[in-house]
Automatic annotation (TrEMBL):
<protein>
    <recommendedName>
        <fullName>Pre-rRNA-processing protein TSR2 homolog</fullName>
    </recommendedName>
</protein>
<dbReference type="GO" id="GO:0006364">
    <property type="term" value="P:rRNA processing"/>
</dbReference>
<feature type="compositionally biased region" description="Basic and acidic residues">
    <location>
        <begin position="1"/>
        <end position="19"/>
    </location>
</feature>
<comment type="similarity">
    <text>Belongs to the TSR2 family.</text>
</comment>
<keyword id="KW-0698">rRNA processing</keyword>
<feature type="region of interest" description="Disordered">
    <location>
        <begin position="1"/>
        <end position="21"/>
    </location>
</feature>
<dbReference type="InterPro" id="IPR019398">
    <property type="entry name" value="Pre-rRNA_process_TSR2"/>
</dbReference>
<dbReference type="Pfam" id="PF10273">
    <property type="entry name" value="WGG"/>
</dbReference>
């Protein structure tokens, strides 16, 4: 009887952990998508198809790449690395040189989103 109660408690705990994990992952994904959808320079590039007729798909690929990279990282992402990634993507993918300071702003906001994700992840192990 005690073993079945213990297993039941462990199962509920595992389910709660899984739910928290999913919430943290959803937070990261939605944060990235919202940030990129509000980035004027990227949206101009997409709307004007500066990356070709598949510019929208390219912006989705950027979001997926950011999510994949940040969700696998257990240390805060260096803002310079994110700035370089965004700059390279805009230049090579959308043939666009961004000089309005928005790359730095977006990179800083990504760092904040990632730090919140890491905080939510760490609360899973408490």
């Amino acid at each position: 009887m005690m073993d079945s109660m213990k297993r039941g408690t462990e199962t509920r705990t595992e389910a709660k952990q899984q739910q928290k994990q999913e919430c943290a992952t959803t937070f990261l994904n939605e944060g990235i998508l919202m940030l990129l959808s509000g980035w004027h320079a990227l949206q101009m590039a997409v709307n004007n198809q500066w990356g070709g007729s598949d510019s929208l798909q390219k912006s989705h690929h950027l979001a997926s790449h950011l999510f994949s990279s940040l969700s696998k990282s257990y240390a805060p992402a260096p803002v310079e690395d994110l700035e370089n990634l965004l700059h390279e993507c805009m230049l090579l993918t959308f043939n666009t040189e961004i000089e309005d300071g928005s790359i730095e702003e977006v990179a800083e906001q990504l760092v904040g989103i990632h730090e919140e994700y890491l905080l939510r992840q760490s609360s899973l192990h408490i």
